[in-house]
Amino acid sequence: MRRIVTFHYTLRDPAGRVVDASAGRDPITYLEGAGQIIDGLDQRLRTAEAGAKLTVQVPAAEAYGAPDPAQIQRVKRALLPVAGELRAGDQFQAGEDQYAPVVTVVAIDGDEVTLDANHPLAGVDLTFEVELVTARPASAEELSHGHAHGPEGTGHCQ
Ligand code: ZN
């Protein structure tokens, strides 16, 4: 049985810093096994019931994977869509499309900039503090669509 699950989370990196959290927003909703959340977390929440609070460790390999050296490139400063001063550690979107990847400035060397287009959490082991809010069996229609419907879901099929 695959379920529709909603949960709140706080995500920490190995140093304990909070990377992301759902507090103050709607809980995350997903259909189990549909690739809507990172696989390692999906797998580890399969046995959790509504109301459960648990800490889930997800190694980088089951989250955003290892950094890919091919995603680190040097480009001419003049080609970047960013005005003003750039510093190592700056992040910006590498295009106007809302799904364009976020890149991180690694180094600046004269008129050349080294950019890293890996996911910021690539290579990072993740710790999620999860509060499972609701869990119910997915309907046949949800399974065929591959996503949640109704008040805990996207609602876009209503
Ligand atoms: Zn649907």
Q: Can you give a write-up of this model?
A:
This protein has 2 domains: 3-64 and 122-145, Chitinase A, domain 3 (Roll); 69-116, Beta Barrel (Thrombin, subunit H). Helices cover 8% and strands 36% of the residues. It is built from 2 helices and 9 strands, in the order βββαββββββα. The strands form 2 sheets. Strands 1, 2, 3, 4 and 9 form a 5-stranded antiparallel β-sheet that branches. A 4-stranded antiparallel β-sheet has the order 5-8-7-6, with no helix packed on it. A hairpin with a 5-residue loop joins β1 (3-12) and β2 (18-21). It is elongated. It starts with a strand and ends in a 13-residue tail after the last helix. 16% of the residues are buried. The model has no long low-confidence stretch (mean pLDDT 91). Zinc ion (ZN) is lined by residues 145, 147, 149, 157.
What is the radius of gyration computed over CA atoms, rounded to a whole number of angstroms? 19 Å
Level-2 CATH architecture of the largest domain = Roll
Tell me the distance between the termini.
Answer: 23 Å
Q: Tell me roughly what share of residues is in helical segments.
A: under 10%
Biggest sheet architecture: 5 strands, antiparallel
Proportion of residues in extended strands: 35-45%
Number of helices: 2
Query: Which descriptor suits the 3D outline?
Result: elongated
Q: What small-molecule ligands were found?
A: zinc ion
Q: How many DSSP E strands? A: 9
Low-confidence stretches: none
The topology string of helices and strands comes to: EEEHEEEEEEH
Mean pLDDT: 91
Overall tally of domains = 2
Name of the level-1 CATH class of the largest domain? Alpha Beta
CATH topology grouping of the largest domain: Chitinase A, domain 3
Q: Briefly note the structural class of the backbone.
A: mainly beta
